[in-house]
Design brief:
By secondary structure, the chain is an alpha/beta fold. It contains six helices and nine strands; from the N terminus they run ααββαβαβαββαβββ. The strands form two sheets. Strands 5-4-3-6-7-8-9 form a seven-stranded mixed β-sheet. Strands 1-2 form a two-stranded antiparallel ribbon. α2 packs across α4. The longest helix has 13 residues. Bound molecules: S-adenosyl-L-homocysteine. S-adenosyl-L-homocysteine binds next to β2, α4 and β4.
């Protein structure tokens, strides 16, 4: 998986590659799908949601420039897979999931795997997780029309926010925003992606 799908597409940060190698993706997919766990595509995780394609996880994590000591917020816990990868790189990871069933399953899985620096909360990620702000990096793993204001407010100066921007059916672009010294945000477009929508009701 690492060589064929991740390094071959240009992911080169050795720490990101090490984190991807260390997290067992099969632990995050349904038992009947373990044989496809390392294939180059998204997989269903129940509740109509998906665990992202491994390459996309590596791409977002690299784009967020997570380094030792960082405090990271993720919106869209899903299976908990990307949170586990982030947990290998960051000091602490806070991840928010709107679906109670998924949040509970992810929290149990992460604790079983010993990902002790990752905390899961059931709630609306559009609001971030203000108790632990500011964050060095924020990753949103569901697509919306724009960056939620609360997430910008919870990003530290110099922090990076990575999120797919676009509608449910429209083309989505992965963007990175940086928070500058004067509190201004600069945006870069990184490429085309396809994510499930960021929805604002919890269930
Ligand atoms: N990062 C995940 C993949 C996430 S799929 C993994 O590695 O498995 C996107 C997830 O975002 C879904 O689980 C969906 O329920 C969740 N989501 C959508 N809108 C949300 C919101 N407003 N707040 C929190 N989670 C949300």
């Amino acid at each position: 998986m690492l060589r064929r799908h991740i390094k071959a597409r240009g992911i080169s940060d050795p720490r990101v590659l090490e984190a991807m190698a260390a997290v067992p993706r099969e632990a995050f997919v349904e038992p009947g799908l373990t044989r496809r766990a390392y294939a180059d595509g998204p997989l269903p995780i129940g509740e109509g949601q998906t665990i992202s394609q491994p390459y996309v996880v590596a791409w977002m994590v690299e784009a967020a420039e997570v380094v030792v000591g960082n405090r990271v917020l993720e919106v869209g816990t899903g299976s908990g897979y990307s949170a586990a990868v982030l947990g290998r790189l960051a000091e602490t990871v806070y991840t928010v999931e709107r679906r109670a069933v998924l949040a509970k399953a992810a929290a149990a899985r992460l604790s079983e795997l010993g990902c002790d620096n990752v905390s899961v909360r059931h709630g609306d990620g559009n609001e971030g997780w203000s108790e632990h702000a500011p964050y060095d990096a924020i990753l949103v793993t569901a697509a919306g029309p724009g960056v939620p204001g609360a997430l910008r407010e919870q990003l530290r100066t110099g922090g990076r926010l990575v999120m797919p921007i676009g509608g449910r059916w429209a083309t989505q672009r992965l963007v990175r925003e940086r928070c500058g010294e004067a509190g201004q945000f600069t945006r870069e477009e990184l490429g085309a992606v396809r994510f499930v929508p960021l929805v604002d009701e919890v269930c």
